[in-house]
Amino acid sequence: MTMPALSYHTAGESHGPALTVMVNGMPAGLVLDVDFINAELQRRQGGYGRGARMKIEKDAVTFLAGLRHGHTIGSPLVMQIPNRDSRLDDLKRTPPVYRPRPGHADLAGSIKWLTTDCRETLERASARETAARTAAGAVARCLLRAFGIEVFGFVLGMMKVASDVQPTPENLELLLRARDASEVYCPDQAVSEKIIEHIRNAKVNKDTVGGLVETHVFGCPPGIGTCANWHEKLDSRIAAAVMGIQAFKAVEIGLGKDCANRVGSEVHDPIEYDPQKRGQASLGFVRPTNNAGGLEGGMTNGMPIVVRGTMKPISTLLRGMPSVDLNTKKAEHSAYERSDVCALPAASVVMENVVAFEVARSLMEKFSGDSMHQALGNYEIFMEMARRLPLEETPASVGLEAEQTEE
Ligand code: EPS
């Protein structure tokens, strides 16, 4: 490997001065579409059900390192997103919180760090941090686009209402427009309306709602990821990234948990070969169904990657929940701080971007290069070799021939 593995780290509290994200391992020569990155940040701020905080913030990135004349130069990339509502040390406006919210990190974190002030935990646990992860993922999507890979995320449903929309490369443009026209980022208008109704009802009842989000990745060639080590499997990385999003409680790939209700012949996708599609990313290996969600053995199989996430309802309820004051140990209702009734549309944006980063990470492990020229060259060579299968010579015989010639 010529480059460090693609990775990112975030820092920053919800009401601190700024969020920061460092992306390491991006090849040089990648032109970053800063308008796209900021548009993703703005989309993450939106969606029906958001609270008053999003009226204050105007998320946009400032590049502090790694970019010159709009393109990467191979050094660590550092982005900053300022918090307009910065008041971390202001005790009047950001007081200690002693009544933990069931479902939030408050109780577990306070005990972990041996304090009764949940503020010490909640500031970092807050989903505000997902703005930084969205920025990293949007950078990764600029890389993926150079390889012809597109990512599409949307809200699927909530409270037993779910869309049966099936994104494909052919209907992607249409669905993208429908999603962007929906207040809840769901391309299915009838389902959108029902979701809005559920959010409205939750608000009236001083309650909250979660739901289902889905991400599809188009254009991956087969063989990204590996079956060699469990923690390097692409599905295991995607699952970790999705479960790492605040409030996510489940992740599924393809058919997901419905696999348990079917026999093998109804689960596994038959393999077909279509020479007409040899030039496409799938190399011509097409499947009439995609129950595997594009991943077999921890590797892409040429079909679109399909990931579904379940977000629980936000744990800050206006009506509160039974809790305990950590100082007095007396029963109290949990603290209420301004919050969202539903952040599911925002979560769909976060999920598509964190999934994109994991795909980019595995892609760069396979086609690693210091520069985009080198990485794209490695990709082309691999695709050409894969199309030529079976290769006439094995790597071992190539080595033998070279030795014999030298003699
Ligand atoms: C959050 C509480 C709210 C949300 C926040 C997540 O913030 P505040 O306490 O400032 O009103 O708006 O989400 C964001 C700020 C964001 O950018 O997504 C929480 O407690 O997790």
Summarize the helices and strands and which ones pair or pack.
Layout: E1 7-11, E2 18-24, H1 34-45, H2 53-56, E3 62-65, E4 67-68, E5 71-72, E6 77-82, H3 106-112, H4 119-125, H5 130-146, E7 150-158, E8 161-162, H6 172-181, H7 189-204, E9 211-218, H8 234-243, E10 248-253, E11 272-273, E12 285-286, E13 295-296, E14 299-300, E15 305-311, E16 322-324, E17 331-333, H9 344-367, H10 372-387, H11 395-406
Antiparallel strand pairs: 1-2, 2-6, 3-6, 4-5, 7-8, 7-9, 9-15, 10-15, 11-12, 13-14, 16-17
Bound molecules: ligand EPS.
Architecture overview:
This protein has a single domain, classed as Chorismate synthase AroC (Chorismate synthase, AroC fold, 4-Layer Sandwich). It has helices spanning 34-45, 53-56, 106-112, 119-125, 130-146, 172-181, 189-204, 234-243, 344-367, 372-387, 395-406; strands at residues 7-11, 18-24, 62-65, 67-68, 71-72, 77-82, 150-158, 161-162, 211-218, 248-253, 272-273, 285-286, 295-296, 299-300, 305-311, 322-324, 331-333. The chain has a five-stranded antiparallel sheet with strand order 8-7-9-15-10. Strands 1-2-6-3 form a four-stranded antiparallel sheet, covered by helices on one side. Helices cover 33% and strands 18% of the residues. The chain is of the alpha+beta class and 407 residues long. It starts with 6 loop residues before the first strand and ends with a helix. It is globular and about 75 Å long. The structure holds ligand EPS. Ligand EPS is lined by residues 14, 51, 53, 85, 122, 126-128, 131, 316, 337-340, 346. Residues 14, 51, 53, 85, 122, 126-128, 131, 316, 337-340, 346 line the site of ligand EPS.
